[in-house]
Amino acid sequence: MQDAICNHQQQDFAEAEKAKYEAYEESRRHRRVERVAHEAVCKDEVHELKLVELKGRVRGIIDQTEGTAAKLKLVDVLSRLGVAYRFEPEIELLLHAMSVGLEDVQWELDGDLLHTALLFRLLRQHRLQVS
Fold first, then answer.
1. pLDDT over 90 percentage in the chain
2. Same-domain check for residues 15 and 34
3. Domain stops at, among 27, 44, 64
């Protein structure tokens, strides 16, 4: 009888130890998840700051670009890279100015078929009327 009580106490002790271990492991996992989440948030903040910096630099490049052909190439490259949506207002303004002064732009391109075709494609992609 006493052996049965002793075995029962040992089982209770073993179960209690197992429960403590599981609780410890769970809290350890929880701390690890919290640490990983915190690191992800910190990385997101760093990426956000880097994004703002890079957008500012690209806006500077857009503003400093001289010549119609160079501006068209820049808009095309931004589109092909898949980042044009981040600079939509600047691109719209640039293309709208080109569409308003289309005769001057065509004169500047002076029969350059590649850039003339690029101009018309970009204007049509941005829903500006050209013919």
1. 44
2. yes
3. 64
Q: Which domain holds residue 8?
A: 1-64
CA distances from 78 to 26, 74, 98, 100, 110 (A): 48, 6, 17, 22, 24
* 117: nearest Cα among 54, 77, 73, 74: 73
Is the same domain home to 74 and 60?
Answer: no
The domain boundary, picked from 64, 86, 109, lies at: 64
CA distance 44 to 52: 12
Q: Tell me how far the alpha carbon of residue 11 is from its chain's centroid.
A: 56
pTM for this model (two decimals):
0.65
**Nearest residue to 60 (alpha-carbon basis) of 69, 68, 52:** 52
**What whole-number distance in Å separates Cα of residue 95 and Cα of residue 4?**
89
Q: What is the token pair recorded at 44? A: 């997101």
